[in-house]
Amino acid sequence: MKKNTVSVLVAFVFVVLAGSVLASNNLPQKAKQETIEKIKEKNTPKIDSKKVKIDLTKTEENGYKLSVNGKPFIIKGVIYNPTPVGKGYDYDFFTDENKPWLVDGPLMQEMGINCVRIYSVSDDLSKVKLFIRDMYEKYGIFTMVSDWLGLWDYPQSNYADPKFRERSKERIVRIVKELKDEPGLLMWVIGNENNYTFSGKMG
After folding, report:
1. CATH class of the structural domain 54-199
2. 64-91: per-residue pLDDT in tens?
3. Distance of alpha carbon 144 from its chain centroid, rounded?
4. What is the DSSP string of 146-193?
5. Any idea where the domains of the chain sit in the sequence?
6. Helix or strand or coil: residue 92?
7. What is the pTM of this model?
8. How many Cα atoms within 13 Å fall on the side-chain side of residue 66?
């Protein structure tokens, strides 16, 4: 496809989307709400929460394809790590009785988000389970579960230390055993920018 053709297509899509937004702003309140509900229904996958099968298969082009219940699954996701004004690095949103995801979840659903990634988990894994279930059952949003692998530890983490590696392994195994059967769990992400730990610039 030629470059100018692509530009025309992109411009066309932009105009159509912009026109849709402008049109929706002129709708009566009831019609707006009905439109929002249709978007939510469209963005919520029709998946039986008891029968979720996730596969990663190799393609003929030597790439990989992610599937959920046999259907291709394109991740449209964001990092989810809310921190209210006035709270610090030790804020644990999983244990917040206000459950901020119940406010953010509908907004993400309306955006078409189908997956969130969390940087790490709470010490209370039952609260993490509740978060994963709420996001999936209420909004059709999967969760990727991560762990810092000691990125913010002080003194600085030493991955060459057998004791540190054993502690990390025990923590990861505990998290996996506790959360692995949650239907709303999409995959694991181990570590985050841990090259900084080796650089000596963090910790």
Report:
1. alpha beta
2. 999 999 999 999 999 999 999 999 888 9
3. 5
4. EE-TTTT-SSPP-TT-HHHHHHHHHHHHHHHHHHTT-TTEEEEEE-SS
5. 3-43, 54-199
6. coil
7. 0.74
8. 8
